[in-house]
Write a structure and sequence with these properties.
4-stranded parallel β-sheet; mainly beta; 23% strand
């Protein structure tokens, strides 16, 4: 995804990364710092970490990280401060800790 670097706005309405079975990284998304809607990272069986999202500070609606079999770290979300609705992290068997979410000070919905 490196060709995207420099071409994305810093604020998005939604970002959905779903069922990209060969995707190992989110590099190229470093310019994104806020999402007005939902961030959904679902069904990416080769995704190892969330590198590329290290500048993300807020998600106004929902964060969903589910069914990513190889995901072993979400530490790149360490700058994330707020999620306006639900936080859903499940079915990621290689993920042994939620290190990276310590900076969250606002979650206005449910945590799954």
């Amino acid at each position: 995804m490196n060709p995207l670097y420099g071409y994305l706005p810093s604020n998005l309405n939604d970002l959905n990364v779903q069922n990209c079975i060969a995707l190992t990284s989110l590099n190229g998304l470093q310019e994104i710092n806020s999402i007005a809607g939902e961030l959904s990272i679902v069904g990416n069986s080769s995704l190892i970490d969330l590198s590329g999202l290290d500048n993300l500070t807020s998600i106004d609606f929902r964060l969903s990280i589910t069914n990513n079999l190889s995901l072993s770290s979400i530490s790149d979300l360490s700058n994330l401060v707020s999620v306006g609705e639900n936080l859903d992290v499940n079915d990621c068997p290689s993920l042994k800790s939620i290190t990276g979410l310590e900076g969250l000070t606002v979650i206005l919905g449910c945590v799954y």
